[in-house]
Design brief:
Blueprint: H1 10-22, H2 27-34, H3 38-50, H4 59-89, H5 93-96, H6 105-112
């Protein structure tokens, strides 16, 4: 019968590495007590110190990252639309006079009327 491969949570790996780093127990003692290979503890220590061994994001964090990407995409699309509108609006002479003021449909309508003296 084949032995099934075990997986360990991040917290367990971190606890084992902290035990080994504390110096209270040898790596062989820790491995024997937790029924894991001593070489595995050494690998976990190296990965933890190099930054490879990290806690995976939670479900909520993954959902927030997905939502953030959707918002970034939407902001990019809207930025393109605004740039196109600015380019096309600048071709109208009445809009060019409003360069320092707020451009709104109301101000554009007011400018289309002849000036009263």
């Amino acid at each position: 019968m084949k032995r099934q491969r075990r997986s360990f949570p991040f917290e367990f790996k971190k606890m084992i590495v902290e035990l080994a780093d504390s110096g209270q127990y040898t790596i062989n003692q820790i491995a024997r007590d937790h029924e894991i290979a001593p070489g595995l503890i050494v690998q976990w220590r190296e990965k933890l110190n190099s930054g490879e061994l990290i806690q995976p994001p939670s479900y909520k964090e993954r959902q927030l990252e997905i939502e953030l990407e959707r918002y970034k995409k939407k902001v990019g699309e809207l930025t393109i639309v605004v740039d196109v509108l600015k380019k096309h609006l600048s071709s109208f002479p009445s809009v060019r006079r409003l360069s320092s003021s707020l451009e709104s449909p109301r101000t554009l309508v007011v400018l289309d009327k002849p000036a009263k003296y």
